[in-house]
Amino acid sequence: MFTGIIEKVGKIIDIEKEEENIHFSIESSISNKLKIDQSIAHNGICLTVVDQKKDYHLVTAIKETLMKSNANDWEIGDEINLERCLKFNGRIDGHLVQGHVDTVGIISNIENENGSFLISIRYENSDYITVEKGSITINGISLTVVNSKENAFSVAIIPYTWENTNFKNYTIGDKVNLEFDILGKYISKLIAK
After folding, report:
1. pTM greater than 0.90
2. Separation of alpha carbons 66 and 177, rounded Å
3. Which is deepest, 63, 144, 165, 169, by most CB within 10 Å?
4. Given this model, what pLDDT does residue 28 score?
């Protein structure tokens, strides 16, 4: 379980394919604090540390993960948002995030609003909904929905989040991992029944 508050940004330094899996080596300033078998959110994807070195750690994305996320598009040199799992002895500054990506969204617009940024995202899976002022996780970042439409929404990004996550690297057309609010998913499923 995570909160969607990004701890550090890491960099992919190696990618190795093995059968249907992809192994990613991620260099970061928290890699030396990680342990094998620990869950870490990588752009919102909960991945298990399978090896740990002084300056980097290794995680493996399996077929299911690759089908539901944008991890197939990751390249050496890409920056990845990182968050260690939640400790239940402190404040939850974001919202409860599982690290289970629901679908991939496409950035459809980026507006510089003289001090903040308005990011618009569209997605194809109509099983998921967003509500204005509700929570959404984009590449592991806990954010509040500003505008909500069918299969599209916008979020406002403060300068701190822009500078301290990989949002500053994105352009229109880029794919992002989306995890919809867990409460909204349960309510949607109940109503559908």
Report:
1. no
2. 11
3. 165
4. 97
Q: Which pLDDT value is given to residue 130?
A: 82
Q: From the first residue on, what is the mean pLDDT of each consecutive set of 10 residues in the chain (193 residues)?
A: 92 96 97 94 96 95 94 97 86 80 96 93 84 91 92 94 94 96 82 80
| DSSP result, the chain | -B-S---EEEEEEEEEEETTEEEEEEE-TTGGG--TT-EEEETTEEEEEEEE-SSEEEEEE-HHHHHHSSGGG--TT-EEEEEEPPPTTS--SS--B-S---EEEEEEEEEE-SSSEEEEEE-S-TT----TT-EEEETTEEEEEEEEETTEEEEEE-HHHHHHSGGGG--TT-EEEEEE-HHHHHHHHHHH-
- What's the confidence (pLDDT) of residue 140? 94
Contact residues for 189 (Cβ-Cβ < 8 A; gap 6+): none
For the chain, list the domains and their CATH numbers: 8-84 (2.40.30.20), 103-192 (2.40.30.20)
Percent over 90 (pLDDT), the chain: 75
Residue 105 has a pLDDT of: 96
Please report, to the nearest 10 degrees, the dihedral formed by the alpha carbons of residues 8, 134, 151, 104 taken in order: 20
CA distance 50 to 52: 7
Which tokens belong to 125? 């899976």
